[in-house]
Specification:
The chain is of the alpha+beta class. It has six helices and four strands, in the order E-E-E-E-H-H-H-H-H-H.
């Protein structure tokens, strides 16, 4: 890839550096932004602005399209808003628990309680941690997975996505592998 253009824009307290590239394969535009704190000259944030892409692994093909779409939206907004990503990932978690976990409760916290006995130990710990990290007691709207944007703890949005990865593997990928390899 050859750099097409480099642009620097100063704003209050930050310097924004934009890199414009042309993909040598498809010849489409690629735009990357990095931000530098002008007070201490430290690079603080790097974003791939275009095309929007997640830094996470793609959703396995065994995951239903509706759930994959929710997950991908949560990954795409993560660099811009951890709160929005966490809200979307909680909504996706709730959809997974309804679809594959066959829970019947209305809100996320009771759905987690309902599904825990069905899960292997490593997943019980991870799914239960969603409730603990999310601090559902202090933020009851998180337990409803209303999609409402609510302040999150540092790392909470990323953790939610990690838990979804593990649930996708447990509920969708591994059963598909077993089904494909079983004798008929």
């Amino acid at each position: 890839m050859q750099r097409a253009k480099y642009l620097t824009v100063d704003s209050k307290g930050e310097q924004h550096n934009f890199e414009f590239w042309e993909c040598p394969t498809c010849e489409k535009l690629i735009i990357k932004e990095s931000r530098v704190n002008k007070k201490n000259n430290s690079q603080s944030v790097v974003f791939m602005l275009y095309p929007l892409a997640s830094q996470r692994q793609p959703v396995p093909q065994e995951v239903p399209a509706k759930l994959a779409k929710m997950y991908e939206e949560a990954t795409l907004v993560l660099p811009f808003s951890e709160e929005a990503s966490a809200a979307l990932s909680r909504r996706c978690l709730q959809a997974v628990l309804l679809d594959a976990g066959k829970v019947t409760s209305k809100d996320l916290a009771p759905q987690i309680d309902e599904v825990l006995p069905q899960l292997p130990t490593y997943l019980k710990t991870q799914v239960d941690a969603v409730r603990n990290i999310g601090n559902f007691g202090a933020h009851p709207n998180k337990s409803k997975a209303s999609g409402e944007i609510i302040e999150v703890e540092v790392g909470e949005a990323e953790w939610n996505l990690d838990v979804l990865d593990a649930l996708f593997d447990f509920y969708y990928v591994q059963p598909a592998k077993i089904s494909a390899s079983s004798f008929r």
